[in-house]
Amino acid sequence: MSDKRYWQSFAELNHKQEVLKKNKDEFKEELPFGELEEGVLDAKTPRRDFLKYVGFSTAAATIAASCEIPVRKAMPYVNRPENVTPGVAKYFATTFVQDVDVLPLVVRVREGRPIKIEGNTLYPFTMGGTSARAQASVLDLYDMYRIPHPKRKNGKAFQEVPTFDQVDQQVASAMIGLGGAPVVLLTGTIVSPSTKQVIRDFLGRVPNSRHVQYDAVSYSGLNSAYGGRIPAHNFDKADVVVSLGADFLTTWLAPVEFARAYSSKRKINEKAVAMSKHYQFESHLSPTGASADERYTHRPSETGAVALALLSALGGGGTAPSLNPDLTKAVQKAAADLKAHNGRAIVVCGSNDPNVQTVVREINRLAGAVGTTIDTGTTLNHRQGDDVAMATLVEDMNAGRVGALLIYGANPAYEYFDAKRFVDGLSKVKLSVSFCEKLDETSELCQYLIPNHHYLESWGDAEPRSGHISFIQPTIFPLFKTRPFQTSLLKWSGNNTDYDTYFRTYWLGRLGGQAAFDKALQDGVLGSTMQPALTNPVADTVRTITAPITTITTTTTTAATPTGDLATAVAALSAARIGTKDEVLLYQQMSILSGKQASNPWLLELPDAITRTTYENYAMISAKKAEELGIDYKGMDYEYYQEKPVIELTANGKTVKLPIIVVPGMNANTIAVAVGYGRSENFSKAAAGLGVNVYPFARWNATSKAIEYFNDIQVSAKPVDVQKIARVQMHNSYEGRTEVVKETTLATFKARPDEFLDFRKERPE
């Protein structure tokens, strides 16, 4: 049994006696009202500002939440609705679809209003799991910043269009006036089979139209490496897991599914003691990295070199690049474990470089993963965005080759790496329509706003894995004058059917009757291991409706997408430049991911798993970098006061100021910053002014034709300011105990399985 003593902060490590002294007063609730700046409780966001000053103690949270509200008396029904019994909840199966989440859910409804969300235990891959985003999504339903009705821009302001018939007539007239110019439908990843069919019908009936799928955080490189279809990853079959920068437990690809599968191999069966081995190579400390058995750091620009070294160590050919000795030794150790567990290992990578992903694909082949832990016969459909198609669209818009742009589930004016060029191109498009629920940075630039239903108000479907369907059904009548964006596409292509009717007809035809359809809605899920089975399967059409990949000459792309050829990938990575100075890495936080829910108060107040910080983004830096900047992170003041030093970061001609958080386990030359912050006030006052938008720090890789989420960065020589940030209570008391957990090695546990029980018996009361 290990005798390690763990520390929770730099202050505890360097000033243990002072920390112990302060811990004696941990639960004192006196609040420093005299120190508060004048007007803090009268500010636009008093709760957030108040918590910045005094932290998240019990009394502070109580006062921050306190406000006078009118007294409302509960009145009984005069005529009670037939299907409503006050106090008795109903449950509806539905699906949450956003970013990396495609989650079958069960929603609890009281008196006609959804109030609580849980996972659907009938879906075999998430097994009832949900995410923080799904849990908080019920609050988005009641967001006062949702667009309440269709609007048309008149000058610089939007005006309501009284009816959907009127807006349909206006859009139809505008499309006729395009003179044959192309119509482009720009969406996020579409995982709905029925919606794909609607889009296919629309493209077939509207001349010169095409569909471009774009994701805020792209997986285009992974898609390209596997021919446009990402295979299923089976962590529950892996005895060895090697991750190259993939935070697969919280943000990468399908984290809820992966966390369930991964954890099944980390639980020890006393009758057959075994657990998986996890190696993590990354640049910043992620929740997945914190869960690894062995973890190693490197620059973001070295990811390709690490992949090449691992390929070479497995006998895949090529010359291993030069890495530091510790990293080289780690790669050799991981490779030996992969060889020893051939067919029972998996390698995943968070890079968006198609060349890196092609090398990782070959590593998995050499490790015997294909057909076991990597199931190429089953696809994961969570991410289908195409970087080249998006770059082509932006160039076409700026060249005047796009007549109309219809936007659903995408916000490139905020999250695209070259947002300015997209905005410039949008101004040259004759007709622009947004189907988004809120007035985001792209919607406010469009000519028409036709808001979509919230998913808790909608009918629909999703296919997260090929052959496995999850249904969406409404839990409440629409709160605003909204409609499904699919209905707009149907009507504008000459089909007067609304999407609700289309959806019902579509699935009645595929399932063979009303009874099977009702059963599918009741269960909420349908798949190859569930009944009823599909009687009329429809082929996946996603690759036939994406934008064609063509060779073009533009400022961002000059050739077709990479072919996934291994020799080409190895040559490209061997010639790739590795940074020698500081680099910035853009990552997603578990709470708000790409920023689509950046206005949700529950998620804004969810502490980060690593830094325990809320509300805004910041620069995660290493201890070495802090010393270079002259920051005394070891002192008591840094730990116990909310003020943190602010540094300037410059990349791609953009400069931002961010407070710093010193984090152990960071690569010395890496500065990590979360995306999703710095939103427009029109999007939400709750999100306005929180952090800065760092998507412009991403860059285009002209060799791989993909977006990279790291870049060279210039850092100010010293802090330029200080800024208060909100963190959960940082000091804790163990009440005399010396540790929280006991640890040992798997080999020791096998040899002495009763050691922990004996320790507990011997421990004094």
Descriptive account of the structure:
- This protein has about 775 residues and is an alpha/beta fold.
- Among the domains are: about 150-220 and about 385-545, Rossmann fold (3-Layer(aba) Sandwich); about 230-380, 3-Layer(aba) Sandwich (Dimethylsulfoxide Reductase, domain 2); about 580-725, Barwin-like endoglucanases.
- Helix content is about 30%, strand content about 20%.
- It is built from 26 helices and 31 strands.
- The strands form 8 sheets. Strands 20, 22, 23, 24, 25, 28, 29 and 30 form an 8-stranded mixed beta sheet that branches. A 7-stranded mixed beta sheet has the order 5-4-16-15-14-6-7, with helices on both faces.
- Helix 7 (about 195-205) packs parallel to helix 17, helix 11 (about 305-315) packs parallel to helix 13 and helix 13 crosses helix 21.
- The longest helix has 16 residues, at about 325-340.
- It is globular, with a radius of gyration of 27 Å.
- Mean pLDDT is about 85; it is low at about 55-60 and about 530-565.
